[in-house]
């Protein structure tokens, strides 16, 4: 009888844990939904004005992404093994360059979305790690389809933050890290010069 009771207790415990984990995963999806709705309401539906006011567009994108993106952490991941060698000033400069360019580049691309055709998909099977993948399909105004996978990770403060993003199967975190590694090699591992090259490279992509 004791073994049966213990088995039932264990099953109930595992069930409660899995239910709590499922709730956490839905929290990641909820965080993405809030960002998508903010894009729809604050940017896409006001694109005529924002197209003529890029600085306002960047400010709005920054305000929206600030709730889910830690740009300092993102920059640390992009710098990879070179992060420890960089001075605090170089880390700050790199983060600023990366953030400003991304806001300008991808803020402009948001103006091309069809506000009525943005679909946050139900959560699919997840891995065992801490990251939850949230798929979103964006219909472009020219009828093209943009699929974005948001990799969300819960912080110690129980806030869901963007860990990485894959756009149409392109892993941007990995791509950026490789690009910066090339910049370091081309500039004889001089971090200051590599940041200058990184800034110029991102400017060409914007």
UniProtKB/TrEMBL annotation:
Keyword Signal applies: yes
InterPro entries: MlaC/ttg2D (IPR008869), Tgt2/MlaC_sf (IPR042245)
Alphabetical UniProt keywords: Signal
The keyword Signal appears for this protein: yes
Record's signal peptide: 1-22
Listed Gene3D superfamilies: Tgt2/MlaC
Record's protein name: Phospholipid transport system substrate-binding protein
Species of the source: Marinomonas aquiplantarum
Classification of source organism: Bacteria, Pseudomonadati, Pseudomonadota, Gammaproteobacteria, Oceanospirillales
């Amino acid at each position: 009888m004791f073994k049966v009771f213990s088995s039932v207790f264990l099953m109930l415990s595992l069930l409660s844990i899995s239910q709590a984990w499922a709730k956490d995963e839905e929290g990641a999806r909820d965080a993405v939904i809030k960002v998508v709705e903010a894009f729809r309401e604050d940017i896409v539906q006001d694109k005529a004005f924002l197209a003529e006011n890029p600085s306002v567009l960047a400010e709005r994108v920054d305000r929206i992404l600030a709730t889910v993106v830690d740009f300092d952490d993102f920059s640390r991941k992009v710098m990879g093994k070179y992060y420890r060698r960089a001075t605090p000033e170089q880390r700050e400069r790199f983060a600023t360059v990366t953030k400003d360019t991304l806001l300008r580049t991808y803020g402009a691309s948001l103006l091309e979305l069809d506000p009525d055709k943005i679909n946050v998909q139900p959560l699919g099977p997840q891995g065992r790690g801490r990251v939850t993948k949230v798929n979103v399909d964006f219909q472009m105004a020219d009828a093209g389809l943009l699929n974005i996978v948001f990799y969300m990770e819960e912080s110690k403060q129980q806030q869901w933050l963007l860990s990485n993003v894959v756009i149409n199967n392109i892993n941007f975190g990995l791509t950026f890290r490789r690009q910066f590694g090339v910049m370091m090699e081309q500039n004889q591992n001089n971090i200051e010069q590599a940041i200058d090259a990184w800034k110029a490279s991102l400017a060409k992509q914007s």
